[in-house]
Structure prediction request, 338 residues.
Amino acid sequence: MGAKVARHSRQDGQRRRRNRAIDDDRDTQRAGHLRREDRHARRRRAASEATRRTVPEYDVDAELARRPLMGTIVALGVLLAVALMAFGLLVTCSKGTELGSEAAETTTITENPAFDWENLTADIHGFPSYVVDGRVLSRLGVDVSDHNEQIDWETVADQGVTFAFVRLGYRGMSDGELYYDDYYAANLDGARAAGLEVGAYFFSQAITTEEAVQEAELAISLLDGRSLELPVVFDHEAPEGSSRAADISGEDLTAAALAFCERMEAAGYQTMIYGNQYDLTRFDMAQLGDRPLWYAEYVWQPTATYAFSYWQFAAADGAIAGIPGEVDLDIDLRAALN
Prediction:
């Protein structure tokens, strides 16, 4: 495949995890959960010192001497302002059709959102559910990796979970090497055996199309001919700091996403793009075509107004019986798209 893939050794009949990368890599290598929004908000809140101003001593005689002239200046200023307003009104009226069409373009998304979130309610477990005229149009799912360790998929299915996205592997944020997820095979096969629909995702840190193709090749190799009901997802996030992909341009990122998706599609798999609002703004969405989106925002009601097929709405500790620790929760909204 032209890419270095970390391998695992065995000791006393047990599979040991290899130290995959530096500590920062391991701590932050949770696809879909970098929580970047908080860091960006803190960075934007950098405060600047207020500038002190010295107030000059007030001279009454000088002020009285200036008043006639100031009155004339103010009057002229008022007349000029009125003239400018009148001119602006004439220009606006003459270009009414043009300005109206521009306004329509900028407000279409807000006025015609993909979803009516008034239809969002809580199910018996307190999870979001999209219900229209008494019909439930959403489905509950999870996305998992080796961070969740061993999962009892039969118990998961009993909780009403109907689908799962399984991490296949990832590229190291610092070292750029490719790694496979320790539990990818157990999760793919276990979820399928429990009756769940299964998709997969790859945590990318590709900075070139060649690296994106390498990631796709690894994903295809790990799937090993398995069929999937759901897409294989390109999950590329923009971590701060020393990450090798922190400064990738939107053009290069879009090209990498296309390279990954096209290689997976050539192998017979559907594809999808993952990200939160910040992540998705880095892509040239027009070039990605009609590939579906998997949107991440941990709120009760999403603030994004564009169409997305899946919504990652929370990461909750102990939310789903059968999955140890914190697990990511998703709902499938394809049936609810207007």
